[in-house]
Amino acid sequence: MATSNLPPQTLSVGTYTFTISEGGESDIPEFCDVFDIAFASNLLFNTMSGTKEAAAEEAKKAPKPEPILGTNSKAQEAFKTQLFEMRDKWLKKDDMYLMNILAVLPTYQRLGLSAALLAPVLKLADREGKKTYIEASEAGEKLYRRLGWVETGDTISLNFTEFRAEGKVDIPLMMREPGAANTL
């Protein structure tokens, strides 16, 4: 796991106080728990993913683990193909940051925690004059727009009926220019 050399940070949001620090391999099961709870109603992740216990174990292996029990491998492969194609198109690694997965437990949602977690990175990107790119979940789109992201015009689209499942997802790809939305 990459290290950032950032010291732990304390963050107060409303009546809550959080300590944010870099995670390690031993934190993977808890990360999986938070992800599973935060994205419990997300069609994309529910259609593609196996169990969190198996995911935590497989995450420790490299470079490419076997599919996790219950994984819809064909849907997962279709998603990864589109994901990598779009990242190849939009990511210019020297002049931008990629915002990956942001998950907040439902108990702590709508308190400003996501914006508070993003703020230090966005301030850094602004200071360095770098763009930030994100594949937006439906739940996060409103926040991302408020923080200055705009749609690129491209989406990652999956129709799960092609993979013996139900539903369809469209994931908008969004870019934030340095200094966009001065709400930080």
TrEMBL record:
This is N-acetyltransferase domain-containing protein. It comes from the Eukaryota. PANTHER family: GNAT FAMILY ACETYLTRANSFERASE (PTHR42791), N-ACETYLTRANSFERASE DOMAIN-CONTAINING PROTEIN (PTHR42791:SF2). SUPFAM superfamilies: Acyl-CoA N-acyltransferases (Nat) (SSF55729). It holds the Pfam family Acetyltransf_10. GO terms for molecular function: acyltransferase activity, transferring groups other than amino-acyl groups. It comes from Pseudogymnoascus verrucosus. Residues 100-157 form the N-acetyltransferase domain.
